[in-house]
Amino acid sequence: MKKRIGITFSRTNYAYYPAWFNEKSLEEDxxxxxxxxxxxxxxxxxxxxxxxxxxxxxMQPACYGGLERYPNMPxxxxxxxxxxxxxxxxxxxxxxxxxxxxxxxMQLVNILEGGSMLxxxxxAGNALHRKASxxxxxxxxxxxxxxxxxxxxxxxxxxxxxxxxQAIDPxxxxxxLRVTAWSEDGxxxxxxxxxxxxxxxxxxxxxxxxxxxDKQENPLSYRVRQRFLxxxxxxxxxxxxxxxxxxxxxxxxxxxxxxxxxxxxAMRLRKAQPHWASKSLEERxxxxxxxxxxxxxxxxxxxxxxxxxxxxxxxxxRNEIEGxxxxxxxMLNHAQRYLSDEVMSTNETMEERIRYEPLGLVCNISAWNYxxxxxxxxxxxxLLAGNAVLYKPSxxxxxxxxxxxxxxxASGIPEDVFQTAVGAGEIGEALLHLSFDGWFFxxxxxxxxxxxxxxxxQMAVCQCELxxxxxxxxxxxxxxxxxxxxxxxxxxxxxxxxxxxxVERIYVxxxxxxxxxxxxxxxxxxxxxxxxxxxGIYLGPLARKDNLQVLxxxxxxxxxxxxxxxxxGKRAGGKGYYFEPTVIADADNSMWMMREESFGPIIGIQKxxxxxxxxxxxxxxxYGLTAAVYTSxxxxxxxxxxxLDTGTGYINCCDRVSAALPWSGRKHSxxxxxxxxxxxxxxxxxxxxxxxxxxx
Length: 696
Ligand code: NDP
Hints:
Blueprint: E1 3-8, H1 16-21, E2 30-35, E3 50-53, H2 79-94, E4 99-102, H3 104-112, E5 117-118, H4 122-129, E6 137-143, H5 148-153, E7 157-162, E8 167-168, E9 177-183, E10 188-193, E11 202-205, H6 219-235, E12 239-243, E13 250-255, H7 259-278, H8 281-297, H9 299-310, H10 314-339, E14 342-346, E15 350-358, E16 361-365, H11 371-384, E17 388-392, H12 398-411, E18 418-420, H13 425-431, E19 438-442, H14 445-455, E20 461-465, E21 470-474, H15 481-493, E22 503-509, H16 513-525, H17 546-560, E23 564-567, E24 582-585, E25 602-608, H18 611-619, E26 623-624, E27 626-630, H19 634-642, E28 648-651, E29 666-667, E30 670-671, H20 676-681, E31 684-692
Parallel strand pairs: 1-2, 1-3, 3-4, 4-11, 16-17, 16-19, 17-18, 19-20, 21-22, 21-27, 22-25, 24-25, 27-28
Antiparallel strand pairs: 5-8, 6-7, 6-9, 9-10, 10-11, 12-13, 14-15, 15-31, 20-30, 23-24, 26-29
Helix pairs in contact: 8-10, 8-12, 9-10, 9-12, 10-11, 15-16
The structure holds NADPH dihydro-nicotinamide-adenine-dinucleotide phosphate.
Residues 365-370, 374, 392, 394-396, 424-425, 428-429, 432, 442-444, 447, 450-451, 465-468, 500, 597, 599, 625, 663, 665, 670 line the site of NADPH dihydro-nicotinamide-adenine-dinucleotide phosphate.
């Protein structure tokens, strides 16, 4: 697969950049992706292996606290471009992508790292660094011996071309950067990372290697490019391909973390956390509120990415993003109440208070089925409470995980307060060997059990939100069997049945059994399965190919034990991981599909004679996430739910989650809670404060 070089678009002289990387000798290995603030298409950076920040118009002075007016300032600035490239740079940094900054690109990197600018070089500087005509000015530069640039170019001086009237301020160079070349008037001509061996590749030059007249012979051009491309190739050895489950095409190839990069991230997070915790709750709230706004602003592009990587129909992707916004709003609105000190008793002499302090550094290992929802359950309250977060999205939802990372940073979360770990299970495994103050895992029982056992010796907080085998009972007194069948079918098949709280087993009173089956199948037959990007599609492909085999085996097992197939039962033909919606009547609890999570579009339905039998069968499970009862008599429903050992109970509804209520499992469905006041406080440790009044 060709390596992709993302180049930021410039209104001036842009064509030189793609031409430089599209030369014949390179075309077999590399291709160029235009990243344009005019579109804007920053999401394409996910598919890139490296970033080139191009030259162009001056950055607006507000970016570096500069003067409003200065000599040679342009007629207009491009604030959208400044913001776009700032996001691109932050993303590249968080993904350790090699970065090459050219002219304005070098100035941008310096500013983003906290450095400043000389707004104009003055008459003498302009005479040396730019010509009045169209062509570039040529001048000498000296290179710092031993620097990345000098070693790459193999010389200690050379002649370069330039066309700039601004420069980076030599006495205010950005944090972690060093100047590695100077022109004869002492103006910085190149930048790279201090102690570059420990950091991702970063090389910035003030000149224009892409358009030098002698670029084929001048080492300050062709060797700069060569060294940059070498780093792209080295970097791309650690990669993970993202496959669209509807088309089976590779849609992205991401650089993954390693145990070493994870360790570095964890160290940076730990260092930055106290400062984040020292900010006011209001300040943290405002930043996260901005994140919520960005979800709306970018909803369509985010939904398209989510659909492309997990196969969820587009409307369901939009619904998920909206659902995440609703949850965030609840958390933001209640943070003050539940995270502030709580006065438990007070009199003339003493006040007793509970203080809620952040845990510190939190590890969040997340699932792919609702990456926004299960993500915000953890990282929003964790950040609100003052924690730093190392977030590992599932490999199957990595693009979304990286979008979340980008949007959090864009909303103002400091770089070192939230970091994303990219990779598959082995990266999750590597996290278990690092030290954290809290572990928040969402996923399967199998992995959750392994996580819990692995981190036990750390004596830190650990919460696991795991799978379920959620039962639903339809009593004989329901008023409208068709409506109940339609609602419960949706509860079983929404998101292709890939919800932790999807209805996974249905028990129906014998008096309404046949009518229910008929209405249920009728409802299922109204749904359209197909391209998840098409409006009106209800069922897309499964997110994971390996689950197709699980579903086939569960269906075969059920049919061999007397199950009656009412529809579906097999994979759909053609490309993509599609499985037909499958309804099996006359199921019973000996069948695999009634015991272990299916996590797909299949459902077993069993006839029962009374409430007592229903309760016994519903309770006959290792799991304990949710249970639902449909009845016209709510007290009957409540009586039944009291008998069941589950974290959530539903009466005349199912497959729903509310931000106001604790979300927690029992038995193999996990322990601990997210959401509600419990979910806000889950990311804190309490301190009992005994304050004697009036004495010092
Ligand atoms: P998995 O258990 O397969 O994976 C969960 C996460 O753990 C992923 O990020 C995964 O990485 C990571 N992981 C895998 N191996 C290890 C390891 N050895 N050490 C540490 N981390 C590891 O679950 P799924 O992602 O398939 O999610 C589906 C499951 O999640 C279902 O059982 C579902 O019911 C449950 N779930 C529960 C929810 C709840 O609230 N109770 C909500 C949503 C889902 P990778 O994917 O990259 O391999």
